[in-house]
Automatic annotation (TrEMBL):
GO terms for MF: carbohydrate binding
Parts forming coiled coils: none
This protein's name: CBM6 domain-containing protein
InterPro entries noted in UniProt: CBM6, Galactose-bd-like_sf, Pectin_lyas_fold, Pectin_lyase_fold/virulence
SUPFAM superfamilies xrefs: Galactose-binding domain-like, Pectin lyase-like
Amino acid sequence: MTWAKNRFYWMFFLSFLVAFTVGYVRHAEAAGTSTVYPFPASLASNSDFQVWVENTSSPVWTAPGMAATPKAVTSFAFTGTVTVKVQYKSNFTSANIMPSQYGITYTKPAANQLQFTLNDYKKSKIIIQIDNDPNKELFLFGDPPVATPPAGATVYQAGAHYPANNELTMQDNQTIFLMPGAVLHARIDTANNSNLKILGPGIIVAYDTGVNPNESEFENNMVFYKSNNVELRDFILVRNFNDNLIHQLVVRNTDNVSIDNVKVISDARCSDGLSLGGNNGVDVKNFFSVSGDNNLVIGWWGKTDNVTIDNYIAYFPEHAGIAQTSAIFAQGIEGTKPGEDTSSIGTVRISNFYAIKQTNVLGSIWGKIQDNIDNFTIENLYTEPGSTRDNLLYFDLNVSSNKNFNLKNVYFDKTTGGYLSDKYYVRFDNVYYKGNLVANTSAANVTGSGKVQVLNGTSGKHYEFENGQLNGPIAANKNYASFGKAVAVMNSVGSFAEVTIDVPVAGDYILDIAYANGSGADAAQSVYVNGIYKFQASFPKTNAGWDQSASSWKKVSGVGTVNLQAGTNKIKIQKDSNDLYTADLDYLEVTLKPIHVEMETGTVEPLVEAR
């Protein structure tokens, strides 16, 4: 055989070997690993369900303190892609895996089994319901790999733990770490403390101790009051009682809060899942809430601002004796002490919210009055098909000034828009009723004297200044700016940054600009639209410097309003001779102004009175 032929066969063999090796490595990377947790001592086992993860049994226990049918629970840690098999105590016809929007499909290896795969812990907090029966449900929680307890942490190992009087009060700089299988029987509270952490995949069983240190109307399972720098991660919170009027997790007048992969379970009346009020700076991710009332409450005890929530599952377990108001609830005034006798909401952004078996999806009906809501946005909201009982919206709480809500990419399983009382303004941007786009205010089907605006594509368009035309300033790397860059050094007269934008309809648009100003004094720069001067924009100083932290950057909502033509427009920020100092520019957002205008044509309707 010639060298040429030998070379051909060797090359073929090597190519095959490389392809096989790469395929094998990729398969190995995709293959998952799992860690099942020890059975949680002191909790009751559940005989209705059995669960295997990668062929290893994962203990199933019964959530204590449930007012109606007990719920089965199992949890484990995993990486990659794992196979999960669930067995019910008897044969069944079908199963629902919720949220259905996660797209988890199953097979039936046996008449009483279902099998499926998980590959992302963020989409692994699920409800498995057998034969559409709420009395046959399993809560299954897939966690990320268990972390190592940090140095100095109070570590609770697997087993049952009972602090004195079933009460635990945290102190400054305290970290609690719950190892897999740990069960901490205690109501947890803290007041006027800093640097607090509760971590780990263990279980907290709250008690009705009769103690009310947070001075609110309700006692709560776990409360953080007038504290700072709080991190909560990975644990499950349940209770050993089913009394009414006791909320689950309350974070009140507490700033700089991070919550990730926390699960709360109760079906008692008024057992609100997560309650936020009087906070500045809250980041919630991957939250699972079972509540006999509101699953998420925002906005009491003062001003609540800078709240971001992503991937929130809200489940309302219907049974006699409870009457839920809303999955997301904008709360009115509840406190009476100075600083708590007002209730307002600044910037709140909720994305990827999954509402299952809700009465109303978004509401505000309780409290003395709601003072102000500036910028409340809900994006990518899904209701479980056929599970909502009443409305998308229900707002009848008295308000003292206009309230603004933005709904974007909402998929609602009914056609009842709901009710808005006076001074409530809601913008619809790609809202669907039963799969059909709400195209106008009539189709929104909202009653009351509030106002609805149907935008469908015109709100919140985002433009990075560094991607525009620059004359003088530079596109500089900035650690805390969006996408890591911003326009800087716009010092000389005539220097500018100009972005080209596109809007679908002509009209007045509100400009929001994100910037940093570490000069120590308020800055002012000129705004031009399509080459024509419009106004001088103000950029107040940012106290955290130019780029030292995320708080160095500030978004000015409503820096000004400009009239834009349909199609392409150019917006320029320029330093003129009468402008003061300078600001680094991050991005521009434009939103159609919500005003009452009569329009006979066009796809975008103005604010009109709800029918």
